[in-house]
Amino acid sequence: MRTLINNLKENEETIISGWAKKIRDTKYMIFIVLQDRSSSIQVSIDKENNKELVKKMEGVLPDSIIEFKGKMVLSEYVKNGGKEFLPTELKVISSAEALPLENNANIDTRLDFRWIDLRSEKNQLMMAVQSEMVRAMREYLYNNDFTEIHTPKLLGTASESGSEVFEVKYFDRKAYLAQSPQFYKQMALASGLERVFEVAPAFRAENSNTNRHTTEFTSFDVEMAFIDSYEDIMSLEEDILIYALTKVKEKYEDKINDIFDTEVIIPVKPFPRIKLNDLYKELHERYGYEIPKEDVGDMNAEAEKLTSKFALEVYGSEFIFVTDFSKTKRAFYHMRENDIPQGYDLIWRGTEITTGAQREHRYEILKKQCEEKGLTKDVEFYLKFFKYGCPVHGGFAIGVDRLNMLLLNIPSLKEEMFLFRGPNRLEP
User: Fold this and answer.
1) Which residues neighbour 113 within 8 Å (Cβ) at sequence distance 6 or greater?
2) What is the DSSP string of 92-129?
3) To 10 degrees, the CA torsion angle through 420, 421, 426, 428?
4) Which helix (H) or strand (E) holds 367?
5) Domains in the chain, start-ordered, CATH in brackets?
6) Inter-CA distances, 375 with 48, 163, 336, 369, Å
7) What is the mean pLDDT of the chain?
8) How far is CA 120 from the centre of its chain?
9) Per-residue pLDDT for 376 more than 80?
10) Is 275 helix (H, G, I), strand (E, B) or coil?
11) What is the pTM of this model?
């Protein structure tokens, strides 16, 4: 039975298998650095005493999959943890050809061969950290009486704004890929579930080539009923992020420091809050920044970067909530008070990671706000959710890949995502 490298015990005969990351053939020895999902170890073959093993290694190239039978021993001469594996048998499970990727390959070449690119220690850690982050966020919600749901991604009408959606042929009619599960989250609350979340793909037909946009991404969506205001939603998000970042830090802090040269900083609750117009004044007075006319009532990438700088300088916080956006820049389903949407954006490390809000649950008001945005036919099915009783509620969504990108200071989503999708990429 196979033993993971991390679980090897001294002088105990066993089998290990994995990728031969390095193969060095010297006059008297063959050294293989073997890697599995847990760790790596040096496998040492003495040529004089293992002629059959030497023959089997002829022509074997790095990244071949090899199985070894033998024992792990301690050695002061081995750099990799002072351990080496001395094999008595080996089997080449899969022989690799010469790798098509150089160490300095550009990102598009790396994406062409993403399954090979992901084999690096850095990318393996990147995926493990993302997995732990999502696991912890899920765990927090399960521990607080939330129900995980799974909503459809094929819709009969264009969701939310009606723009930036992918149209697909659905038998004899048109269908659309879901931009988010927003409508169905709210339907779940109208059904009596009260607290729901979903981790699932979302699709945006944005012809954007920035470092933080993609046409398909994984969204972590949360919705909660019987709230007093959107402050309850902000408080919930604070708790989720603090919990998840703490779990990541506990499990991977040293590796993240070593490999990504960055620190996992646990925020303190409450995160600072600022109204949008007050923020505009601060950015102007401190940094001479004026929001462009087309972005008034909202944020843009430059404003987000300066907002993080402001939050660190004034509050000593990496996180900051921005509230009081213009109703023209927010979705029709955001509740309004004195004509101001009751919602927020959460900025972290120079980038917006969340838009959250209290939702409008009153049918007549919601219908009026739909009409104001020019939405009628497309949202008829959605409006029905509110005709038969719906509680006060609100929620938010976090892009899983964007969150991990910022946590590890990865330059772009192209490098962070398992498989990136953009305007010019549909493969592999």
Assistant:
1) 100, 101
2) EEEPPPPPS--TT--HHHHHHTHHHHTTSHHHHHHHHH
3) 10
4) helix 363-372
5) 5-94 (2.40.50.140), 114-416 (3.30.930.10)
6) 79, 11, 18, 9
7) 94
8) 18
9) no
10) strand
11) 0.92
